[in-house]
Amino acid sequence: MIFSQTNIDLFMRSLKINKDEIAEDRAGIQDGIPECPHMINCPTVLQGMSHEMRTHMNSIVAFSFLMSRNGCNKKEREEYSDQILASCEQLIGLFDNFLDSAIIDTGNSKSDLRVCKLKNILDDLLSEFRETLKKQTYKDVALVTENGSAETTEVLVDTNRVFRVIRNLFQNALSNTRSGYIKIGYYLRNCKITFYVLDSGQGYFKCKEFLHTEDLNDSLTKYNDTSSAINLTLAKKLIQMLGGTMWIECNGLTGTAIYFSVPAKVVENSDIDINNYVNTMIAI
Predict the structure, then answer these.
(1) 252 and 162 in one domain?
(2) How far apart are the C-alpha atoms of 12 and 4, rounded to whole Å?
(3) Beta strand spans in the chain (E)
């Protein structure tokens, strides 16, 4: 079964939101990065998603067919299974990012602040990233981590959205780095947590274009990478919603260094009542 362009396009059109239902633009992210465009109204993004969906779906069908053949040995089955799983994960990530971005555009997304140990914010994510780098495809990429604060420090922050931003930035770094390193770290200063994801890859100019563009159609014409465009656009929107700032620098010759800071209240007593903060949207 091959997924046709017509079927995919019909599905993508069903996701469109009436322009009248989209809230007015919020204030742009600071440090020279402009307000995010609404992806749901960007034809090039929808076309790119359509193409990526067909690619991943056809990959799943093809490797499933190969697994069903007689004479397929155990090693081949494991390889085909890994390819199918990778395509499924990429599809899920593509849809999650796109739909979350559309929800933010409607103004229906809110922050959920929670108390957590600063060290724990990255621990689970780093375990996930290390598992990803064990795959044969990324055997030449090393993960470097840096911790810029005391391990016992507790803060009030929207951990789910911070997780999402870091995960998106890691995926972006991974797509640009075939060999070398990815460095992830953070530090706490003046009631703000600053996270950063650095890589030694080749994607600086592309990332800079996607982060600074006000027209994704033009940027995707120049750099045909829908996944990176959606990843970075959602990261910008989440940081903006948290009242944070984001900036990009060149790491080495062509590597990328992306930083973002979000407000974080240091908690003296982890047993405090935080009901007043839950489901509160930060206005910027």
Answers:
(1) yes
(2) 13
(3) 114-117, 141-148, 154-157, 180-189, 192-199, 245-251, 255-263, 265-266
Q: What is the pLDDT, as a whole number, of residue 106?
A: 74
Residues 119 and 254 in one domain: yes
Is residue 40 left, alpha or beta, with left meaning phi > 0 and alpha meaning psi from -120 to 50? alpha
Who contacts 220 (Cβ-Cβ below 8 Å, separation ≥6)?
Answer: 42, 44, 45, 48, 226, 229
**Are 49 and 133 in a shared domain?**
no
3-state secondary structure of 258: strand
What's the pLDDT score for residue 41? Answer: 57
Domain end among 106, 134, 157: 106
Examine the domain organization and report whether 160 and 260 are in the same domain.
yes
Could you tell me how far CA 201 lies from the centroid of its own chain?
17
CB atoms within 10 A of CB 4: 10
- 10-residue mean pLDDT series, the chain (284 residues): 50 42 35 54 64 80 83 82 82 77 73 81 86 86 84 82 93 92 92 94 92 81 82 89 93 94 79 39 35
